[in-house]
Amino acid sequence: MNKQARIFVAGHRGMVGSALVRRLAADGYQNVITRSRKELDLTDQAAVNRFFESEKIDVVLLAAARVGGILANATQPGEFIYENLVIETNVIHAAYRAKVERLVFFGSSCIYPKQCPQPIREEYLLTSPLEPTNDAYAIAKIAGVKLCEAYNREYNTQYVALMPTNLYGPNDNYDLKSSHVLPALLRKAHEAKLNGDATLTVWGSGTPLREFLHVDDLAAATLFVLEHNVTEGLFNVGVGNDLSIRELAECICKVVGFEGELVFDASKPDGTPRKLLDVSRLAHMGWQATIGLTDGIASTYRDFVESHAGSTPAAAIEA
Ligand code: GDP
């Protein structure tokens, strides 16, 4: 891909968007275009059309989305389905109208059915019912995948969809009510250590299995897809192995240095029992993740301490 290409990273302040911006800069791309929510509201169709008409974008990386963990998804399904559908349709349609040939749409592994054979292959999409705790978000993301496919078929665009497994890394959401499990447990372990607590509460039974991908690996996979001129399709992005929530909690406690007991809160939902992606489609093309979980958690913890934790962690993190 041309290093002068005008690349619009939608959602550059989020965990995925900021990783893409870091990676593009490191690889020497010189025209990375970003807009804050104040400058460009992606739910405002007219504003999105005006932006694309004036900016002459070559490539769109659509990482803007309303995202959240199991509790946020289960309690605010209306916001999750509405905002994601509107952002996707506005950006993808405006990109097509402005003759943008290449776009990468980011979804999530929760688009796949709840009772999927494991590991999950891309072809299992829409083969049986979804996990109910995040079906509204999943339906919106499936619509995004279908938008890319439909526009490619009808208009000859080259819109590709990447489905990462559970992500973590710099700029994650550490708000305990809306975050995913890894940042939540990282924060809980850090605060439990500082407070000298005897226990740390983990939601659910601790038995669900999850796979975790460092967001810098997702950014690497995105550049791989762009630089190898992949023109269509749905691609899982993961590490190829998973662990239980209990094992994840133990690993986090070790990295953080919290030595108390884990307590499991059965009043909180477990969600889907297992969510391991089959990553052979990208692997056959020559890409695989390189950041190991313990190293990834350790660097994320350092970043968390530097950027949030200061002397009054709880207050700093809410800000
Ligand atoms: P999911 O992968 O879509 O289910 O989303 P999450 O990352 O929010 O949750 C994954 C699993 O971790 C679920 O079984 C949660 O119950 C469990 N979990 C354990 N402790 C926590 C926590 O403190 N926060 C969150 N979000 N999940 C937790």
TrEMBL record:
Keywords assigned: Isomerase, Multifunctional enzyme, NADP, Oxidoreductase
Domain of life, source organism: Bacteria
Record Pfam families: Epimerase (PF01370)
Gene Ontology biological process terms from the UniProt entry: 'de novo' GDP-L-fucose biosynthetic process
Binding residues for NADP(+): G11, H12, R13, G14, M15, V16, G17, K141, P164, T165, N166, L167, H180
NAD-dependent epimerase/dehydratase domain: residues covered: 7-238
Catalysed transformations (reactions): GDP-beta-L-fucose + NADP(+) = GDP-4-dehydro-alpha-D-rhamnose + NADPH + H(+)
UniProt keyword annotation of Isomerase present: yes
UniProt pathway annotation: Nucleotide-sugar biosynthesis; GDP-L-fucose biosynthesis via de novo pathway; GDP-L-fucose from GDP-alpha-D-mannose: step 2/2
Residue numbers annotated as active site: Y137
Annotated signal peptide: none
Record GO terms (molecular function): GDP-L-fucose synthase activity; isomerase activity; NADP+ binding
EC numbers: 1.1.1.271
Binding site for substrate: K188, W203, R210, D270
Swiss-Prot/TrEMBL site (Important for catalytic activity) positions: S108, C110
Reported function: Catalyzes the two-step NADP-dependent conversion of GDP-4-dehydro-6-deoxy-D-mannose to GDP-fucose, involving an epimerase and a reductase reaction.
Family affiliation: Belongs to the NAD(P)-dependent epimerase/dehydratase family. Fucose synthase subfamily.
Protein name, entry field: GDP-L-fucose synthase
Organism: Paraburkholderia phytofirmans (strain DSM 17436 / LMG 22146 / PsJN)
